[in-house]
Amino acid sequence: MSYFSYRGIDFHYEVFGLGEPILFLHGIGNDLYQPKIHQMHLPGHIIMPDIRGHGLSGHNHDPMSYDLLAEDLRLFVKHLGLKDFILAGIDMGAGIALNFTLKHPERVKKLILVRPSALDMPCDPYVRQIYERLSLFLKLHHGIEQFRRSNDYNELFEISPYAAYHLLRHFTDPVAQHFPDKFQQMIDDVPLSFLDDLKNIQCPVLTVVTEDDMVHPVHLGDVLNEHIDDHTLVKITPKPRNERIHLKELENAIIDFLNPLK
């Protein structure tokens, strides 16, 4: 295990592979296992941190935001001594990667956004309500039973059983129970202030999206495609439909983007 410390927080990270550095950020409520299990076959030197308040990384009382997490990332790459690198992120990690790239364009050689959940506007109000309820029930004794009985959970289950089951796992995660406010803080924040800022991104960008995903709207891929000059948009099989195919198509999309001549 490797750690670096900043403002009293110990940040955990792992690395594997050789070659060009690829920094891969996980999504909200996950940890570095998410990109690790997905991207074992990627070429390069893969670096995966646990974002503050997730996995084996600590946190303090600073409210979480994309700006704060992008600053954590800046200090992390400084600690690693990286001059430039490929940057990738899933869900919240995609938002952090976008925020960082806009602030430090000279550091990012290529940008990979997997199922982004927000750009200049927060998530859909219904999704935000679900996560606000999740934050509340995580603080309660036997909160999982109360959450299961709530109208919010049962309405979500009717729309997307996969998404509903996915939220339940947070009740068995000690990190989520210890720091439940992260869900509401991040779901209310946005990675960028103006869509036109995306026009300033000069590095090649890959965005991977799926249909029928209420948390990661497919139309965000079209918005990014419209505003970024050097942009590749790939739509793949949704994970609830077939997780094995989803992961293979995601891996192929990233490998093709990193090695366009192969």
Observed structural traits:
262 residues; alpha/beta; Rossmann fold; 2 domains; eight-stranded mixed beta sheet; 11 helices; 41% helix
Task: Give the number of helices.
Answer: 11
CATH topology of the largest domain: Rossmann fold
Average residue pLDDT: 93
Low-confidence runs: none
Q: Main beta sheet, described?
A: 8 strands, mixed
What is the CATH homologous superfamily assignment of the largest domain? Alpha/Beta hydrolase fold, catalytic domain
Strand order of the main beta sheet, please? 1-2-4-3-5-6-7-8
β-strand amount: 15-25%
CATH class descriptor name of the largest domain = Alpha Beta
Task: State the distance separating the first and last CA atoms.
Answer: 34 Å
What structural class is derived from the secondary structure elements?
alpha/beta
Percent in helix: 40-55%
Number of domains: 2
Annotation, overall tally of beta strands = 8
Order of helices and strands: EEEHEHEHEHHHHHHEHEH
What's the Cα radius of gyration? Answer: 18 Å
CATH architecture of the largest domain: 3-Layer(aba) Sandwich
Give the topology, please.
Blueprint: E1 2-6, E2 9-16, E3 21-25, H1 33-38, E4 45-49, H2 66-80, E5 85-90, H3 92-103, E6 108-114, H4 125-138, H5 143-149, H6 151-159, H7 161-168, H8 174-178, H9 181-187, E7 205-210, H10 219-227, E8 231-236, H11 243-258
Parallel strand pairs: 3-4, 3-5, 5-6, 6-7, 7-8
Antiparallel strand pairs: 1-2, 2-4
